[in-house]
Write a structure and sequence with these properties.
Elements (H helix, E strand, L loop, with lengths): L11 H9 L6 H13 L13 H15 L1
Helix pairs in contact: 1-2
Length: about 70
Amino acid sequence: MLNWLKEPELDCAEIMRKLWNPSPKHEDSARSYFYKCRDGKLNDSGVPYRFSDKEINALYRIKSETAA
C-alpha cells in the first residue's frame, strides 16, 4: 500500500519530519518509529507497527505535494 515509501531515492527522514514535526530531541525516536511502521516490523507483542488512517492520508498528501 505504501510501497512508494521504499523507493531508494525517497528521503524518508524528510517525510517523517513533515508528517510529525518532531522536536530535535525526539527526532531519532520518531524516525525509528516511522521505519518500523513503513516496514511493518513487529512490536514485542507480535503486532505489526502501522500508520494510522490519518497518518496514511497525510502521507499521500505529502507525496502529492512533493511530486508537484
